[in-house]
């Protein structure tokens, strides 16, 4: 099933997706966290005092996975090398594409861009344009195939990007990997099945099981985030440096690191398509950006943000018939 849900926010139309998803998604070396409690309720007005227009957000009717941290240079660079033969020459050296994970060093004899891995910052969050985030998940969905078609469709139809509000790239049914939606991100970061006591679900205002804004500062100092523009944050910092400031599901860096792209679309008038972004960034404003009820937005092709992947839950392996029937039965009894 694939349906579009429309909401009006400050004069814009929000286009989001609710699509059936396929199983058996490989791990590909990412640290995945399972988001359970399918069929959870959405946010109620008392949980988003400044954003009552978002009441109902966060309800997701299926289990899914999210990466514990944002995608890092080490994890993204393989894609940069794989897509290099197809990247537009004008974007070969652009951070919208390489996200800082690879340093552009020129073209080879066949005109293919060449990149040197950024070994100085291997584990910081890559910041890329939504367009390349969409290509990245298309490539993962395809099993990391090398043909150009593997980057251009499968989850998001790249041909529809930047074509105006009548042609918006939306998530396809059967996706194995994707960019999270607002509902999926809000649930993974703010929803707690035991928010008001055992079995009493609800949402925390901030992304580490608290209604108080996280304290900015260096790791190991008692701080909870590297966001905040008054503490003298460094220019870069690896992901996962605040292990005690996790979401109810165990996600890290929902505050700090990089603001994160989402796959809903905000359509303004008849020309502008923006993609929502959530969370705060290293050294940037955080108290408002970290709140459940505050969302930013960026352009599909020029704005650069971090990416936290979402994925289908891998399907259980099937027991072969005949010889394995007794093995399967034995496992069930144990």
Note the total helix count: 6
CATH architecture assignment: Alpha-Beta Complex
Order of H and E elements: EEEEHHEEHHEHEEEEEEEH
Proportion in β-strands: 15-25%
Low-confidence segments: 1-9, 317-334
User: Quick check: average pLDDT?
Assistant: 88
- The SS-based structural class is alpha+beta
For this structure, the CATH topology is paralog of FGE (formylglycine-generating enzyme)
Helix content: 10-25%
Q: Which CATH first-tier class would you pick?
A: Alpha Beta
Biggest β-sheet description: 6 strands, antiparallel
Q: Compute the gyration radius: what is it? A: 20 Å
Shape assignment = globular
Q: How many domain regions? A: 1
CA-CA gap between termini: 36 Å
Number of DSSP E strands: 14
Could you explain how this protein is built, in words?
With 334 residues, this protein is of the alpha+beta class. The chain has one domain (2-72, 123-311): Alpha-Beta Complex (paralog of FGE (formylglycine-generating enzyme)), CATH 3.90.1580. The protein has helices at 73-83, 95-98, 130-141, 149-152, 182-190, 325-333, and strands at 2-9, 12-19, 32-35, 64-67, 102-107, 113-117, 177-178, 191-192, 202-203, 260-261, 265-268, 272-278, 296-299, 310-311. Strands 1, 2, 10, 11, 12 and 13 form a 6-stranded antiparallel beta sheet that branches. The protein has a 4-stranded antiparallel beta sheet with strand order 3-4-14-7. The radius of gyration is 20 Å and the shape is globular.
């Amino acid at each position: 099933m694939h349906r579009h849900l429309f909401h009006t926010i400050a004069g814009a139309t929000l286009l989001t997706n609710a699509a059936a998803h396929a199983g058996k998604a490989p791990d590909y070396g990412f640290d995945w966290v399972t988001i359970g409690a399918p069929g959870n309720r959405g946010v109620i007005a008392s949980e988003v005092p400044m954003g009552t227009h978002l009441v109902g957000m966060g309800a997701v009717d299926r289990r899914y996975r999210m990466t514990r941290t944002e995608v890092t240079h080490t994890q993204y660079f393989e894609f940069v090398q794989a897509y290099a033969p197809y990247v537009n020459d004008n974007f070969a050296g652009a951070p919208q594409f390489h996200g800082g994970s690879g340093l552009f060093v020129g073209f080879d004899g066949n005109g293919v861009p060449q990149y040197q891995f950024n070994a100085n910052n291997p584990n910081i969050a890559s910041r890329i344009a939504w367009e390349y985030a969409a290509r990245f998940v298309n490539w993962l969905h395809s099993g990391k195939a090398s043909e150009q078609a593997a980057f251009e469709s499968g989850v998001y139809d790249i041909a529809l990007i930047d074509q105006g509000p009548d042609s918006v790239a939306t998530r396809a049914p059967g996706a194995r990997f994707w960019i999270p939606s607002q509902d999926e991100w809000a649930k993974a970061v703010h929803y707690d099945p035991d928010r008001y006591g055992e079995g009493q679900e609800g949402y925390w205002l901030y992304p580490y099981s608290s209604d108080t804004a996280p304290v900015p500062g260096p790791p190991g100092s008692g701080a909870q985030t590297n966001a905040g523009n008054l503490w003298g944050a460094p220019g870069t910092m690896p992901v996962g440096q605040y292990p005690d400031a996790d979401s109810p599901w165990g996600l890290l860096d929902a505050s700090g690191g990089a603001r994160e792209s989402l796959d809903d679309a905000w359509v303004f008038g008849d020309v502008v398509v923006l993609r929502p972004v959530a969370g705060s960034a290293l050294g940037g404003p955080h108290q408002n950006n970290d709140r459940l009820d505050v969302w930013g937005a960026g352009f599909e092709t020029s704005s650069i943000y971090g990416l936290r992947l979402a994925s289908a839950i891998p399907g259980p392996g099937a027991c072969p018939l005949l010889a394995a029937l007794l093995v399967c039965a034995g496992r069930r009894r144990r």
